[in-house]
């Protein structure tokens, strides 16, 4: 939930910047417009915290059990999942796998430890003057677009096995 909301907020922020760039074409004078990364970061983080609290409260009100840990389905005849050695059976089981990016070791890709994952993007305290985004997935493309629109000189690196 957090990752998607953060991207959406930052995408909306970049959209506002695009509108500002186009204002002159519609007769608006926008001299002196400044963007403050820290303001949007604080407001975005507060918004996500508030929504997460609402969702957690709604889950509690609905008497839904949230079980955190590593789980696997069992061979039991009824729908059963085992999490950290304890079995849970229910007519409906939702597994929200989540995910965490993997950073290769420097021995595999020299300098990999100098970069950050997409999670690190949301921890940035200020807009970087320059940025290099590695990858061609939708998150990489969105982040490159957001950073570029907000004023970071951005490059997107895409690996290819053959010359196109």
TrEMBL record:
Keyword terms, alphabetized: Disulfide bond, Oxidoreductase, Redox-active center
One GO biological process term: cellular response to oxidative stress
Cofactor(s) recorded in Swiss-Prot or TrEMBL: FAD
UniProt GO MF annotations: flavin adenine dinucleotide binding; glutathione-disulfide reductase (NADPH) activity
UniProt-listed InterPro entries: FAD/NAD-bd_sf, FAD/NAD-binding_dom, GSHR/TRXR-like
Coiled-coil annotated spans: none
Domain FAD/NAD(P)-binding positions: 34-163
Pfam assignment, any one: Pyr_redox_2
Record-level GO cellular component terms: cytosol; mitochondrion
Family (UniProt): Belongs to the class-I pyridine nucleotide-disulfide oxidoreductase family.
Designated name of the protein: GSHR protein
Gene name of the encoded protein: Gsr_0
């Amino acid at each position: 939930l957090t990752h998607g909301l953060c991207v959406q907020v930052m995408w909306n922020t970049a959209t506002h910047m695009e509108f500002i760039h186009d204002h002159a074409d519609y007769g608006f004078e926008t001299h002196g417009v400044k963007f403050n990364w820290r303001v949007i970061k604080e407001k975005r983080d507060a918004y996500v915290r508030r929504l997460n609290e609402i969702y957690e409260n709604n889950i509690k009100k609905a008497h839904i059990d949230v079980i955190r840990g590593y789980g696997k389905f069992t061979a039991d005849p009824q729908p059963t999942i085992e999490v950290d050695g304890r079995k849970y059976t229910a007519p409906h089981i939702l597994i929200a796998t989540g995910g965490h990016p993997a950073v290769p070791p420097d021995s595999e890709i020299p300098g990999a430890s100098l970069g950050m994952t997409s999670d690190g993007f949301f921890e940035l305290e200020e807009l970087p003057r320059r940025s290099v985004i590695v990858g061609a997935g939708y998150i990489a493309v969105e982040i490159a677009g957001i950073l570029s629109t907000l004023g970071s000189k951005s490059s997107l690196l895409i690996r290819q096995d053959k010359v196109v």
